Amino acid sequence: SDPAVSINELIADPAEAVAAMPVVGAQHELILSPKALYGEARDNSAGLDLSNETDLAELAGQLAATVEADWHAHPLLADGNNDGETRPILNPADHRDVVGKVTELRVEDGPRAVELAAKHAAEWAAVSPAERAACLDRAADIMQARMRPLMGVIMREAGKSAANAIGEVREAIDFLRYYADQARRTLGPAHAPLGPVVCISPWNFPLAIFTGQVAAALVAGNPVLAKPAGVTPIIAFESVRILHEAGVPVSALQFVPGSGRLGAAMIAAPQTAGVMFTGSTEVARMIQAQLCERLSASGKPIPLIAETGGQNGMIVDSSALAEQVVADVIASAFDSAGQRCSALRVLCLQEEIAERTLTMLKGAFRELSIGRTDRLSIDVGPVITADAKAEIDGHVERMRGLGCKVTQLPLPDAATEGTFVAPTIIEINKLSDLTREVFGPVLHVYRYRRADLDRLIDEINGSGYGLTFGLHTRLDETVAHVTSRVKAGNLYVNRNIIGAVVGVQPFGGRGLSGTGPKAGGPLYIGRLVQKAPVPPQQNSVHTDAALRDYIVWLDRKGFVAEAEAARAYAGQSALGLERELPGPVGERNLYALHPRGHILLAPQTQGGLLRQIAAVLATGNTAAIDTAAQLQPVIADLPVSIASRLSWTADWAKDGPFSGALVEGERDRVETVNRAIAALPGPLVLVQAAATAELTADPDAYCLNWLLEEVSTSINTAAAGGNASLMTIG
Ligand code: NAD
């Protein structure tokens, strides 16, 4: 409404334009140009317009050139010794199409690569965070310039559609810029990296997840061993080459293509100081079992960031708009042939609308076209391997055997040249029929009664997974009720549940779905240095009554130092933080920090116990305290507001599962306790350990961030009748 501010100015420099705008109402909202969506901090990645004929013509030429190129992924080690066995990489959509070849590092050479990383660790650690971040920014620009050839590789090596390949390259670029920005803002000159970090990624996001892990570990100052998935090494090799070109030395980033056994051999190397893993829950457990056998040089459990699978549900009530539900379900379940960790596995329809919605859904489902993803008209591509196909087909047969109604699309003739699974809808009667993640184009549909909504949510939570969750409803009360009850890392309201955007919907699960911190979120880099920086936004936003009562009690009992520590924790804790993150208009993206859950405490001394309780209360959690140190008398007269949050345990397996653990003790004890915790059934437990002297001397001995749970919620505001604040735009 101010004639002095033109639209062009708004687009060219949003920050200045906002400053120039007269304040009229309580709130302004700008429609920013896509590139400027994230403000000054970083540029948004650019995509391609697949409906623009000029773009398409250029793309076609460049994709054709990538077919002719001689792609060869091979180890890139600091000593230049890059031998191994070579094998071809085939297009999963058509095995006659040889994409290129890979030379894999021999398993016995894995430990040598880690040794090399350790030998050169100090050189990379000495590079300032700003310089490391600049390398990432340069890599992002190179990747942006090479988007089309990179797409060509992804489409053939991973069987992705053009649209998904664009999304993948964009996500990798966003990760590079996001972590560069985070490092510049949060890593002070005193930060200390961990040491060699092994990054192990899956094939389903062979560029984005691979690059994201590597970028975060690198910018934090760690030398990285980057192991791609066995079937998608070529795109990962190209990512590493770009990072080298952007200034990261080979000694700081070594490329180690090979099997899972090579990954295991590197994890076992004594110099490995951290592991970043994305993949199946089963392999994450194996890695944890391996890591718990030793501690870091400073006597701490070795950090493992594990992002794993999900059993993702969506609840649709009778107020939802069926047309929109159908589009969002089709995208959530069948895009990428269901090979996204976030993909929808169980659609729960309120019984009154189930039949009608299912009829519409099946109508849309029958329109899906299946085939080689280098055709723009194709919606569903192949699954990655013959083993994956056999496993998914086996599941469908098992469900058929249980008497479930199965609807399947026919596969086209050309599908015989690759590994395709027919898109499938299975109507189930009990959620308990689903025992594990089925990683393919298979959607389960379950009908529920409105009166049973809470039981349904509890059952979804009861699976132990907690990655993504969707809700379709027009009722604000239902949104509030369901999103507060569901336990999942990423919640989506009135939209699809896939395609989390870096820094907009920080991504990651809880329980069996992962350890956190979230990828593309503000806490991630903190897990890759020895002491997490306290992000600048973290000043206390919470006043937990139990913590206040606790401090009063400590004062009254004369526990002066412990009361001091509890006050410090109260000031540091970011519990309750809620932020709206920048994103496109029409969507509201919230990031919040919640209590992590039930924490296992293993104290050894009175002071240790009292500090551990303070940390638990400051983060809103409950705790089970190990009885071994016989410290029960110390807290026998706690007020009930605190005591009700605590219990004692002599049998950890029975009293779990736990979502975190605080251990007090010297090296030997920490080793024993860490091993015992790793052997517990259920989710991977993030263990923090500190010696008694350290606890007394250092108020940050336990990092409160790791006792919190990050929750991302993305709401399609247009679906709920529009974003009223848009009307304030002049
Ligand atoms: P996978 O667990 O089979 O393999 C992942 C990686 O681990 C590969 O690089 C593999 O070579 C390596 N590996 C295998 N055994 C190993 C061992 N013993 N030690 C060390 N490394 C080993 O998973 P996948 O089939 O490649 O990927 C699909 C899975 O990934 C699904 O479960 C999916 O849900 C999950 N995923 C999760 C996320 C997330 O962010 N939560 C994202 C993408 C995929």
Radius of gyration: 26 Å
Strand content: 15-25%
Strand runs, count? 23
Describe the strand arrangement of the main beta sheet, using strand numbers: 11-12-13-10-9-14-15-23-17-16
Number of helices: 23
Calculate the mean pLDDT score and round it.
93
State the helicity in percent bands. 25-40%
Description:
- This protein is α/β, with parallel strands linked by helices and 730 residues long.
- It is built from 23 helices and 23 strands.
- The strands form 4 sheets. A 10-stranded mixed sheet has the order 11-12-13-10-9-14-15-23-17-16. A 5-stranded parallel sheet has the order 6-5-4-7-8, with helices on both faces.
- α12 packs across α13.
- The protein is globular and about 80 Å long.
- The termini are close together.
- The relative contact order is 0.10.
- Nicotinamide-adenine-dinucleotide binds next to α10 and α11.
Outline of this structure?
The protein is α/β, with parallel strands linked by helices. It has 23 helices and 23 strands. The protein is globular, with a radius of gyration of 26 Å.
Topology:
Blueprint: H1 7-12, H2 14-20, H3 53-68, E1 71-73, E2 85-91, E3 94-104, H4 110-125, H5 129-145, H6 147-157, H7 162-186, E4 197-200, H8 208-219, E5 224-227, H9 233-245, E6 253-255, H10 260-268, E7 274-278, H11 281-291, E8 304-307, E9 313-316, H12 322-334, E10 346-350, H13 351-366, H14 386-401, E11 405-408, E12 424-428, E13 442-448, H15 453-462, E14 468-472, H16 476-485, E15 490-493, H17 545-557, H18 560-572, E16 578-581, E17 587-595, E18 598-602, H19 606-618, E19 622-626, H20 640-643, E20 646-649, H21 652-655, E21 660-664, H22 667-678, E22 687-690, H23 692-697, E23 708-716
Helix pairs in contact: 3-6, 4-10, 5-7, 5-9, 6-7, 7-8, 12-13, 17-18, 18-19
